[in-house]
Amino acid sequence: MLFDNCRKDVKKTILPLGHEDPSVYPCFRTCIEAQRPPLRHNVDLVCDRLKDIRCVVCPKKPESCTYLLTKLELSLLDGIKDDIDFCVKLAREENLVFLPGEALGVKNWMRITIGVEAHMLEDALERLKGFCTRHTKKTDTETESPSSVENE
C-alpha cells in the first residue's frame, strides 16, 4: 500500500526503511556478531539525528538493534491525523517508506529499520527532517507578517 503512494516522477531512490524484514536488503549482514558494531553506530546516528526532528521521538535508545520504534508527536504537525497518514504522506513526498505503528498495534508510532548502511540512513533522516519541517505547525510569531509586527 505505501509503495503505491511513492511518486514515480521524483528522482529520489525509494528507501523502504520500515519494511518488516531487513534481510531483504543486500547490505544486511546475517552474522549477529558482525552486525553489532555497525548497528551500534546506526543507533547512535539515528538517535542523534532524531534530536533535531522534534515530532519523531525515540523514547529509549537501545544498545544495538535492527529497527527503532519512534513516537510521532502529531500535535506538532499540521494536517497529519495519525501514523498511517504520516507514513503515506512521507512516501508520497519523499519516497521514504516507514512502517506505521498501527501495523504493530501501536497507534501514532512508527518503525524505522536501521539495519542498513549508514549512508542510506543519513539520506533517509535528511528526507524525514525536510518532511517534518514542511509539516510543522507554525507558531503565532512565525505566521505574523513583518508589517504587522512593525505596526505594533
Automatic annotation (TrEMBL):
Q: Could you cite one Gene Ontology molecular function of this protein?
A: L-tyrosine-2-oxoglutarate transaminase activity
Identify the residues that the record assigns to the Aminotransferase class I/classII large domain, covering every copy: 33-128
InterPro entries per the UniProt record, alphabetical: Aminotransferase_I/II_large (IPR004839), PyrdxlP-dep_Trfase (IPR015424), PyrdxlP-dep_Trfase_small (IPR015422)
Output the Pfam families linked to this UniProt entry.
Aminotran_1_2 (PF00155)
What GO terms describe the biological role, i.e. biological process, of this protein? L-tyrosine catabolic process
**GO terms for CC?**
cytosol
Q: Which Gene3D superfamilies match?
A: Aspartate Aminotransferase, domain 1
**Official protein name in the record:** Aminotransferase class I/classII large domain-containing protein
